[in-house]
Amino acid sequence: MIGQKLPVIFLMGPTASGKTDLAIALRNYLPVDIISVDSALVYRGMDIGSAKPTPAELAAAPHKLIDIRDPSEPYSAADFVVDAEREIAAIHAQGRIPLLVGGTMLYFKALLDGLADMPEADPEIRAQIERDATQFGWPYVHAQLAQVDPAMAAVIHPNHSQRLSRALEVYRASGNTMTQLRVAQGLSDQMPFTERFNLVQLAISPRDRAVLHGRIATRFHKMVGTGLVDEVRVLYERGDLHEDLPAIRAVGYRQVWDFFEGRLNHEEMIERGIIATRQLAKRQITWLRSWEKNPNSRLNWLYTETEHGISHSKEEIVHCALNFIGSAAI
Known about the structure:
CATH superfamily of the largest domain: P-loop containing nucleotide triphosphate hydrolases
Radius of gyration: 20 Å
Structural class: alpha/beta
Oligomer: single chain
Number of helices: 15
Distance between the termini: 5 Å
Number of domains: 2
């Protein structure tokens, strides 16, 4: 430990990169407790499509912030920050190390950089934005955001519908952009996460994008084969859920929902699910590649294969992670 700072470990990476396996393995070497950093794992009844750890895995390595919301209840980055800070403090109070694991990069960023207080959600404004997106496409909405908040538009992908909608909604509801609100609230003057904790940041990923794409396709087919459609059917038949909820918009769930709505046949559902998951992985990697530009970030990469394409063993990956952690004097 450096000075009086308590240790925290971030383990990030694209979907299907092996984050969960590595996190569970690290518990054999370090006194870590796992906090999930995943916007889909918070929802109950969404197990297969979210690649939620199995009951056996959770029994061996409990995860905080899993199964804490019903799918009808939105869960925001601000909610996550409150919950994660509470869990970090509780783990430290027990003399253990928080290990935050997941692929929702916005949540990690919110912890590192803080979040501004934003206006409450406005259903009417959001519905109008959704109508514009349906008629003209999300790039059109992105262009509208760029006109009023170019700084925020620069960091939000034109196809990231949820973040685009929220950013434009904030401006239309308050007359102020997200960027203006952050500056007005002096977030840059708050003590950064890295000044409060001895933070080690790890990112696990294949070197070759084709390897990741292969894992994604294999895993999605396995999800369908082990009951994803039945899992979504239960949600669909509840009657109180709809496709605009964050839970239902999650990758994989949205495509199966479209299958039940008759917009996709079974083969199209699988194809679109794989494509959407690949797009998610691409966004996650883009976030991670830009992470090092963040003054609060010192990212250590863990690659799952050598430069020559030879896969590292699980033990080799764990050893590499332990080396990075040890170099931070944790």
